[in-house]
Amino acid sequence: MGRSPATRRKRDAAAPRERVLASALRLFTRHGYFNTSVHDIARHAGVSIGSIYHHFQDKEDIAHALYADLLARMVGRIEQIRAVHTTARDRCRTLMVQLFRITEEQPEAMEFMLYAKHREFLPSATPVCSSKPFAMMREMVREGMERGEIRSMDPMIASTCLFGGAMRLITARLDGVLREPLPAQLEAVWECSWRAVAV
Amino acid sequence: MGRSPATRRKRDAAAPRERVLASALRLFTRHGYFNTSVHDIARHAGVSIGSIYHHFQDKEDIAHALYADLLARMVGRIEQIRAVHTTARDRCRTLMVQLFRITEEQPEAMEFMLYAKHREFLPSATPVCSSKPFAMMREMVREGMERGEIRSMDPMIASTCLFGGAMRLITARLDGVLREPLPAQLEAVWECSWRAVAV
DNA sequence: GTCTATATCATGATAGAC
DNA sequence: GTCTATCATGATATAGAC
């Protein structure tokens, strides 16, 4: 019986595809997409150029797969939050908590999702702001208006104002401008954010 | 008597240096820094490669000069606002008005200043968030706290929350996600933003 | 499926005439 | 100061053995 992917993963730490994506995430965020060559990725991942081009169509395809993976994981998290919490306040606050935590624990993932100029190297990609996670955030806010928790206004404006402060703080943290970890700032930020849109 | 720069500017529309910077701004924001070659800039500006390398040290130097010019112009605007208005509320509101207007009238300038990943091609550049304009915004907010207009908290948090919504909306507009011009949204955004931090 | 070796091409930057 | 012509480098992507 041949080695299944699962068996292989146990032996070699990870399948080539995953190793490549992990290396790409690190190198793209550290040095930028255009400052990272496919050779760099191959070396860092410990695989050959040939293997990379067997698993991926081209360099752009690596970035695309990475982006899709990260967004899908984010969508899963938001669905989870929707399932557990019922009020818009609880949902949005929990999301902010998680965004802050992810920024601390997986800054590279956050940076690539949020802060990369995808249009420069992913012509096909939708801008982040109109991606699914952001659409789900807007939907949460819209429901909050129907429930009477949030003032009535354009949901786009409301969700931007509700999460804008947190988002800018996340980019500041990723830029190294903020020294303290984000979770320590949560109460202050949430207080401001909720005041902005609450009835 | 030889042609002075001023005379020349009148004849040829603009000096080579300015033509290059204008072309670079357009091409960098349209296609990205790394998707724009020096040849592209030369062609677009109607000057030769040799001329570009006479006026600028290298490609990075073009981006650097552009960035410095735009930031300096922005600093001038903020100083002007500080001179004309006295309360934090008036100052911040006027700044938001201007940010929205600049986004509509000079979207490329706004995009390059705010939304470009400068660290990818300007290793020496400070992150935008810690650049002078942002520092001046924080200072405005801090003074607002002393005057009792703004709740007492970390000025970094306050200014991020106050301008975060507007900033995110600007990036959404630059991404083409927002169809309506920003000034039409001003009242709604300002209402949210000021509530976030006001006493 | 993985590897090495290589083809092809575009780019940043320079040389040197005018 | 401006130009044309050219160099040198390093990138993406492919070919083909194993």
Can you give keywords for this protein?
DNA-binding, mainly alpha, 0% strand, elongated, 199 residues, Tetracycline Repressor, domain 2, 11 helices
Rg over C-alpha atoms of chain A, rounded to the nearest angstrom: 19 Å
Protein chain pair with the most extensive contact, residues per chain:
A-B, 44 and 44 residues
Helix content of chain A: over 70%
Element-by-element helix/strand order of chain A:
HHHHHHHHHHH
Q: In DSSP terms, counting alpha (H) and pi (I) runs of 4 or more, how many helices of chain A? A: 11
Overall 3D shape of chain A: elongated
CATH topology category name of the largest domain in chain A: Tetracycline Repressor, domain 2
Distance between the termini of chain A: 64 Å
CATH class of the largest domain in chain A: Mainly Alpha
Please tell me the total number of domains of chain A: 2
Overall pLDDT confidence of chain A: 92
CATH superfamily of the largest domain in chain A: Tetracycline Repressor, domain 2
What oligomeric state is this? homodimer
- Summing up helix and strand content along with how strands pair, one would put the structural category of chain A as mainly alpha
Largest sheet of chain A: none
Strands of chain A, count: 0
Range of strand content of chain A: under 5%
Named CATH architecture of the largest domain in chain A: Orthogonal Bundle
